[in-house]
Structures
1.
Amino acid sequence: MKRQSLLFTCLFIISATMHALTLKEDTKICGVCGQPVHVTVVQRLLSGGAMDLDLRPAPEKRDTLKYQIQLCRKCNYCWPDIGKERKREKIAEVLDKPLASDNLAALFARAAEIEIADNAPSFASFMLYMKAAWVMDDLKNKKKSDEYRKLAIKQMELYMERDAIARTTGDNYLAYIDALRRIGEFSKAKKVAEVAALYAKESILPKILDFQIKLIENKDTGRYTVADVLKTAK
Ligand SMILES: [Zn+2]
């Protein structure tokens, strides 16, 4: 809970101060079938620039999205860490579906489906669909990024429905509101913003919420960063 409640603040401070990217080649053992899998991992990444209001990192860090998902080509399991163990029978339906391994967004979406099948809607399944949306944002494919945002929104709704901490965490509301606004769901975003006012009370969160409310009133579906909030809030 603490990690999430500080998400916006911490990421902003880090992103404003340092630059570095170090990659490392590694071999991991697939957590489903036991096959060795060659992976490239980000060993160190501290990049410049403010993130977007849906937690999408600034460009330099965003370029590493391709290293944030790992794939076992033997059993088609994919996950941010391929070593994470899962029982095949629980996720067999997902693994048996045809795989577009050259489609990064589809890999993130597949990982989200694996999490849902094995566990439940969670912050992880929300973020995996958001990452799929960011890949499509970068490819300027609005239709596909909207589709993935809708799937992410559904995950956040189910996650909040089943988890009391999730529905009292300010960051969750802010990421949720931004996803709704970006796909033009203004009336729903407005209703969520009213509830969010009860929980988005720490640090920069109230400023982000005020900023979002203005964007919703203006029916603005644009992309904005935390730096935009700070400029306006002065
Ligand atoms: Zn495998």
Note: Residues 2-233 form one domain.
2.
Amino acid sequence: MLAGHMGAAVAARRFAARGNVGWLVLAALFADVVLWVLILLGVERVVIPVDPETRRYLTFVFPYSHSVVATCLYACVFAAMGVQWGGWRWAGWLGAVMASHFVLDALVHIPDLTLAGADTLRFGTSLQTQPVAALAVEAVLTVAGLVVYWPVRRNAVVGVVVVTLVLTVGGTLWGPMPESEAQAAVGPLLTNVGLIALCFWLDRR
Ligand SMILES: [Zn+2]
């Protein structure tokens, strides 16, 4: 999921009622940025399907970027930054958006999300085994986020989120599967960082 996380970020901008939406997009995508960096460092793992014709999704071993414990830790860090720079309301929404990453991933992933790493409680509905259904849910979440965002910030960030959704759908259904873990990580890492930077720039005052 990528567009769905961005939908959560832009929706939160309305209720946070202040700040560059880039901060919220950073909070929403932070777990994935950490994931792709840790995969390149060999700390976390992505499992590439051997039968991409029938299995259109990657699975992960990612306790440091995507467990409940890690999510709570990162959410606290974002909230603490928010208190410093924007007050309690801004802090609450930064932390909530960071934590929403886990919830939205669990909504579609197979149960590869854990409480605190291997041999702990696992989370995930396995909706991603039916890619069309998973994409439909992501599209609804993304569009809902944009509908919430639109009245307060009518800027090009909306276009970025729409393009991200279109590319997410195309990539999931028809995109080539990566051939190595490094190849799987580089593209998404650059995409995530690029989207965060682009949203910061487009929402600058
Ligand atoms: Zn994720």
Note: Residues 3-202 form one domain.
